[in-house]
Structure formats: structure tokens, C-alpha cells
Write a structure and sequence with these properties.
With about 130 residues, this protein is mainly beta. It has one domain: L,D-transpeptidase catalytic domain-like. The protein has two helices and eight strands, in the order E-E-E-E-E-E-E-H-H-E. It has helices at about 100-110, 110-115, and strands at about 1-10, 15-20, 25-30, 45-50, 55-60, 70, 85-90, 120-125. Strands 1-2-3-7-6-5-4-8 form an eight-stranded mixed beta barrel. A hairpin with a 7-residue loop joins strand 5 and strand 6 (about 70). About 30% of the residues are buried. This is DUF5675 domain-containing protein. It holds the Pfam family DUF5675. InterPro entries: DUF5675 (IPR043732).
Length: about 130
């Protein structure tokens, strides 16, 4: 199964829609496109289901290089994870409901992981009209 992440690059953060089979699963926020903490490059990546005691369940993108990108909630409810994509329900001045949005993302992919199928994330820049502000 392949899901899509359509992005819009803003000066303060990168926002996007995570979509599966034509339906929006969640909005997302990431670091800005430029160095020192860039968002992951556009492309196609396998998603792996991971767990650890500190973070709980999260998704990891299989990418080249030493840095591992993840899909997980905002850190302490307000900080965009470095090398990560944070699902949120709103992008307005402050991102909101990141843990709930992350739960929705994991729930949407539950059957894929349970069946043993592979899950792919395709990241592209979205149409400006498609990615309207809240």
C-alpha cells in the first residue's frame, strides 16, 4: 500500500496532508526545508512500525544515511521533532492535537501491518490551492 504526503513549504515550517486512497488521514508539520534541520527529501520511502519505552509506537521511514526520520507526535506537545514528521489536526498559529492525530495515523495503517504487507510513503510538493491554511 502507498500513502501520499503532499507538502507546502513555509518560512517557519513545512505543512502537509497525509492521504490514503484519496482521503485525508491527518495534517502534518515538519521542520523547514533549509539547513540546519531540514525535512526529509521528496521521494518514496518504506514505513516501518517501531516501538520503544520513551516514545511508544511510532513509524520510521527507511531511508539512506545515518539519520532515521520518524512519524511521531510533537515533543512535549509543542516542538516539531528533529528529523521527523508530526501528525496534527490543526496548523493554525500553534499545532494542535498531535497525539490524537498520530493515533489516527497508526489506526489507519493497522490492517496493513497486521497483514504483513509493506507500507510506502510517497512525499511530493502539493498544489498551493490544495493546501489551504486552517
Amino acid at each position: 500500500m502507498t500513502v501520499q504526503l503532499f507538502r507546502k513549504y513555509r518560512p517557519e515550517m513545512t505543512v502537509g496532508y497525509l492521504m490514503c486512497e484519496g482521503k485525508v488521514i491527518s495534517k502534518t508539520i515538519e521542520q523547514i526545508r533549509m539547513f540546519p534541520t531540514p525535512c526529509i527529501k521528496e521521494g518514496k520511502y518504506e514505513l516501518l512500525l517501531k516501538h520503544n519505552e520513551r516514545r511508544g509506537w511510532f513509524l520510521q521511514l527507511r531511508n539512506e544515511g545515518p539519520d532515521k526520520y520518524i512519524i511521531s507526535p510533537l515533543q512535549k506537545g509543542k516542538f516539531i521533532p528533529l528529523l521527523g514528521i508530526a501528525p496534527v489536526l490543526h496548523w493554525d498559529r500553534k499545532a494542535k492535537f498531535s497525539r490524537l492525530a498520530t493515533f489516527k495515523v497508526l489506526e489507519a495503517f493497522e490492517k496493513v501491518f497486521a497483514s504483513g504487507d509493506r507500507l510506502w510513503l510517497e512525499i511530493t510538493e502539493g498544489d498551493q490551492d490544495f493546501l489551504e491554511d486552517d
